[in-house]
Amino acid sequence: MARNDLLPRLIGGLFAGCALLAAGSASAADKVAYQLDWLPGGDKAPIYVCVDKGFCADAGLDVSIVPGRGSSEAITKIATGASDIGSADIGALMAARVNESVPVIAVMSIFNKGPHAFYTLEGSGVETITDVKGKTVATSPFTSSNVFLPLVLKDVGLTEDDITLTKADPGALGPMLMTGASDVIIAWMTDVSRYTGQAKNAGKTIKVFPWSAAGLELYSASLIANEGFLKDRPDVARRFIAAFRKSVEFCIANPQEAAESVSHIVPELTAENVLGSLKDTLVLVDNDVTEKDGLGVFEPKRLAATWERVSAAQQLDKDVLDPETVVDRAFVPGATQ
């Protein structure tokens, strides 16, 4: 073969080799399966920001988002390795560690305040949480708020016998409140905008009573991970958690753009609706606790208080679990020991 014939082939081979290397680099991103504990929405914005804004890609990660139907399901999927990391209520994780010894651990706080609240209307006669005495109260059958209801009532000197409690489909709670079918409903602080809008359409005004204001101070939604994932792929875990934390900071600083990121990935959700839910959610993420302890941190005393509340609510022996064994602070900068 003539040298003149060989040169183009060598050059062609070189370019082909470079193309294969480039393709290999492009496909070298580490895959991570992120497990939601519920459906997409404003309260789940950080993971959508992480993907849409490229924070995950910049960290060399190819992240898939898996929908969920509650903390228990999320914990199970992460425990079995079906997903690597995700969000769930740390109280549910504590109970699962006691009852099932699941290989799942919390690595970052997302909500450092509980989301539980009473909603009522102006003119209902409810001016403080104590005023729910003698009222009809509606709740969803499956909300984790029901677990803590006896505790928050006890904190204000009441029992469940002091209210008339009914359970209804979550979608029916708002209409029940607006039509007077129930004096009070139990819902999360992440839904303030939604219920405020429903009340406005009905010519009424919402009043919200967070249970945290009555003394129910605890951690709630948290970033949790499979222990095998943390042990076998610590660098991947560290990069993901750093990118997720950056995404939380982005949500705090740029809620409108964060809402648009959710809408980009989940077009069934409008940015306007996502924004309202996200703003409601951020009060549980960025607040006086965050200012004192830092973003994403599990402060030991608050963590212990969380387990004390969870064990009491679920009638578990407080001494069977050291809450410190439920968290790994190694992945969040500035975490308190």
Automatic annotation (TrEMBL):
Membrane spanning residue stretches: none
Record SUPFAM superfamilies: Periplasmic binding protein-like II
Signal peptide range in chain numbering: 1-28
Domain SsuA/THI5-like, residue spans: 45-258
Single GO biological process annotation from the record: thiamine biosynthetic process
Domain of life from the UniProt record: Bacteria
The protein, known as: ABC transporter substrate-binding protein
Natural source organism: Jiella endophytica
